Amino acid sequence: MIERINVGPRASQLVLVDGRIETSGIVALTPRHDIAEQTRCVLAQLEQWLAQAGASKANLTRLQIWLADMSEFAAMNEVYDAWVGDQPPVRACVGAALATPQYRIEIQAFGQL
């Protein structure tokens, strides 16, 4: 059985299937901020979405991170490292052109219930 949470016209924010958690890409709600603030915003949204599924960041198994500018890698990591805790998922981070120039970061998450 597949459960779709916060279904939109193009994508669901969160999908639960066979005990797995998969999110769509998450970007900042207010993209005018710097990379640190956008990272905090994205991670806060991720935690809210996980809570809707009865999960937490401890349930995460993998994160995919896209940065608009890889020179912001260290600043993003400073926020991420403070957030991730002592059970970090596997992670990949690559540079990519995002949907609009204002977005500095996008994160997609995967986990297990």
UniProtKB/TrEMBL annotation:
Which PROSITE patterns did the record assign? UPF0076
Quote the SUPFAM superfamilies the UniProt record gives.
YjgF-like
Q: Which CDD domains does the annotation name?
A: YjgF_YER057c_UK114_like_2 (cd06150)
Q: Which PANTHER family match?
A: PTHR47328, RUTC FAMILY PROTEIN YOAB
The name this protein goes by in its record: RidA family protein
- In which family does this protein belong, per the annotation? Belongs to the RutC family.
Q: Which InterPro entries match?
A: RidA_CS, RutC-like_sf, YjgF/YER057c/UK114, YoaB-like
